Each structure stands twice: as C-alpha cells, then as structure tokens.
From TrEMBL:
CDD domains: cupin_YjlB-like
SUPFAM superfamilies xrefs: RmlC-like cupins
Protein name: Uncharacterized protein
InterPro entries: RmlC-like_jellyroll, RmlC_Cupin_sf, YjiB-like
PANTHER family per the UniProt record, alphabetical: BLR7373 PROTEIN, CUPIN TYPE-2 DOMAIN-CONTAINING PROTEIN
Domain of life: Eukaryota
Species for this entry: Decorospora gaudefroyi
Length: 230
C-alpha cells in the first residue's frame, strides 16, 4: 500500500432526481493495482482486506455495455476494479439528466478503488474488453437481503462462494459495504424532498482499504454534514 495514496474527491450536489451527498465521492487511482495484478490474486484477498476494516464483500460483477444509473439510499459502497482494462463510470446524475450537464465521468482502471456515499448516483458502461451482458455474483443469502446476518459460519460460507468466482480478464468490480449495510436500488426521484433521510446514513469507522488512515474517508469525510449542500 503506498504511504501517500492519491485521492481524488468530488462533491456532487443534489439534482432533481438524485440526492447525491455532502460527503465527497472518493477515487483512489490504481491503489490496489499491485494486489490485483499479482499472478496469485484471488477475490478473497480483497475480501480479507475489506473484512479487516469492517466492510463486508457482497458481490462481484462482470459488466456489460450499460447498466441503469442508480443510487443506494441505505448504505455507503466501495467498488474496486479487479479485472479487465477499463470502463466509464458516470456519477451524480440519473439517466437522461446527463444531457443537461452535471455529474462526472471517470475512466475506471484496474486497481482503482471508489468509495461511493449513500445517495450518489452511479452507472458503469463501455467496458473493455467488451462484454455482451452483466453477470452478478452474490451468495444466496446476501441476494435475499440477509447481509446483516453475520457470524463465523455464515461468513465462512460466503467466503467459499467468492473463492469460486473466476476472473477471466473481463471488466469486473468487487463491491463491499459496512457490516450491517443492506443496499437498495433507486434510479431517481424516490427521495425527492426527502434527501436528508439519505444524508443521515452513518459514516463508517474505517476506510475499507486504508483503515483508520486520515488519507481516506476517516479524514476526508470528517465534519461533513448536509448543511454544506444547503
């Protein structure tokens, strides 16, 4: 892990359809490149890093040409590029809103880490190598909304599930949430007039990758509140 990681932050104000957040979107370019490009890399190596800092791996996704823009109103999210070359991720706007400007597009590359605050819209598209469709890998209990059920036996079964996910060079990301976080899938307008409900999602104690380092969310999210958006 580099001692002084590069961190790029973007504070995205609400739109007519998307709450976004007073907490900045955090992008750590190539932070885990060395890890994910080692010949022996397995997704569980990253799972263990997340777990060490209080974040739970819940999915691995292989991306197709496009997915709907969406946000999570109930939890913050970490995404790490673990395979493939690159893709574009658009943050901060609902589908259709990008035509009026706003939001930010980032070229996501191997080893990049993104920490997405609750409420911030995101969509991944145009992956390289190109792929015909989305494949989403989740343990059955997490897919059923029971991520909040934890314990050594249950986490062991989930770990074994991720041991079986193969990386074949296509663009893939791995997603994690603070333990106890169960995510929803909102596409825009669901929290119009109620944005503060999303902004109140508690800030986790540690960064999923940088732990308690103030170079990560521990320092960059400290003291942020919804007042900065009003």
């Amino acid at each position: 892990m580099p001692p002084n990681p590069t961190v790029i932050s973007h504070t995205l104000p609400p739109t007519r359809q998307i709450p976004n957040s007073p907490l900045p979107l955090l992008h750590y370019p190539s932070l885990l490149h060395d890890l994910v490009t080692t010949p022996t890399f397995q997704p569980t190596h990253l799972l263990d890093l997340y777990t060490q800092h209080g974040w739970q791996t819940q999915w691995i996704a292989k991306y197709g040409p496009d997915i709907p823009s969406h946000y999570h109103s109930t939890t913050h999210e970490c995404m790490t590029v673990i395979s493939g070359s690159h893709a574009t991720i658009r943050f901060g706007v609902a589908d259709g809103e990008e035509k009026g400007g706003g939001g930010v597009e980032i070229k996501a590359q191997l080893g990049d880490v993104f920490i997405v605050p609750a409420g911030v819209a995101h969509k991944t598209f145009s992956p390289e190598p190109s792929s015909s469709g989305l494949a989403f890998y989740q343990p059955e209990d997490i897919a059923a909304g029971r991520a909040w059920e934890v314990g050594a036996e249950r986490e062991g079964k989930r770990r074994r599930f991720f041991e079986g996910v193969e990386l074949k060079g296509e663009f893939m990301m791995m997603g994690a949430y603070p333990y106890g976080g169960v995510w929803d899938f909102a596409v825009g307008g669901e929290h119009a007039g109620r944005e503060e409900e999303v902004w109140r999602v508690p800030v986790p104690d540690k960064d999923p990758v940088l732990g308690d380092s103030r170079a990560g969310l521990v320092g960059l999210w400290e003291g942020k509140s919804h007042a900065s958006l009003t």
